[in-house]
Design brief:
By secondary structure, the protein is α/β, with parallel strands linked by helices. Helices cover about 40% and strands about 15% of the residues.
């Protein structure tokens, strides 16, 4: 039976972030009142501390948890903070699900990452391949910390009959993304490089790797729709991939961003820097069959919307 979210109190971790804001908007479209969505802020509720989580559940009667909070970044950030990314992501998820279990929440939705997949899993990545190897080294601590949510969710379902589900998302992009060069992912990083170079009269930009790696990208609004659909309709222990099912090389991506932004300068590939995982693309059949999710935003349209958002807001960032 599908859950009617309109009369539920929903704890949305990471609700003030990039993905969280899109989930909020999608919940509002479903008719969920703003007052029914609880969004903890790190300044007052650091979710790596058990006491803060318990206080949050004491302050509100929570029916559903959507755990979208994450300590995340691009290859550079993962290389610089592997310990922090592992600990913060692991402890947040473990403690949050445990307190949610003790408080008898109706449903727990854990948001995982494509970084959890083995480095050389066959393309497209199928959910059954999750345990067939070690993740790509540069983001393994982050990916493995998030993958433990799947283990915990399945264990809690088995022992405590907790309705916990786990979704694995591809790389997201869209309006409101993180454009900080110290921690951003590839699309916002490229957009910023190209537009800033134009504004500053720079005729060469450096890109990590050799451009051969491939990635799959999903617009954040599509991701939010998938998460809300799963919250309403999916109640099984098996993990579910959330993506678009389209693969693009970094070299192709750079060409797209350069063309869309109007950047005509030189691209200089820094092959002393890592490519990251060789290939990434998800098999998305389970999401389509289980709860009817199909991504609808074309990549070119989503990219242009993201570029225009950055042009409008870049001085504020």
């Amino acid at each position: 039976m599908a859950i009617d979210l309109t009369n539920k109190t929903i704890l949305l971790t990471g609700g003030a972030g990039f993905l969280g804001k899109a989930i909020q908007a999608t919940l509002h479209k479903r008719g969920v009142p703003k007052s029914n969505i609880i969004i903890p802020r790190s300044a007052s509720h650091d979710l790596t501390k058990r006491s803060n989580i318990e206080r949050l559940f004491s302050e509100h009667h929570i029916d559903i948890v959507i755990h979208a909070a994450a300590k995340v970044g691009g290859i550079g950030a993962n290389l610089k903070h592997p310990g922090r990314f592992f600990y913060d992501n692991l402890i947040m998820g473990v403690e949050l699900m445990e307190v949610a279990r003790l408080r008898c929440v109706e449903k727990f939705v854990a948001i995982g990452t494509i970084c959890a997949y083995p480095k050389c899993a066959p393309i497209p990545f199928k959910e059954d391949d999750l345990w067939n190897g070690y993740p790509e080294e540069t983001n393994a601590p982050y990916g493995l910390a998030k993958k433990m949510l799947l283990v915990q969710a399945q264990a809690y379902r088995q022992e405590y009959s907790m309705n916990a589900i786990t979704l694995f998302l591809v790389n997201l992009y869209g309006e409101g993304d993180n454009f900080d060069p110290a921690s951003s992912h590839v699309i916002p990083a490229l957009i910023k490089k190209c537009i800033d170079a134009q504004q500053q009269g720079i005729d060469v930009i450096d890109i990590w790797g050799d451009g051969s790696a491939t990635r799959e990208f999903l617009h954040v609004e599509d991701a939010a729709e998938a998460i809300v659909l799963a919250t309403e309709q999916y109640n099984s222990p098996e993990p579910v991939n959330i993506g678009k099912g389209e693969e693009i090389s970094i070299k192709e991506l750079v060409n797209h961003v350069c063309k869309a932004t109007g950047y005509k300068g030189e691209i200089r590939w820094d092959t002393t820097k890592p490519n990251g995982q060789p290939r990434r693309m998800l098999d998305t059949r389970r999401a389509r069959e289980a709860f009817g999710f199909v991504a609808t935003i074309p990549f070119e349209k989503g990219l242009m919307k993201t570029i225009e958002w950055y042009r409008t807001h870049r001085k504020e960032l």
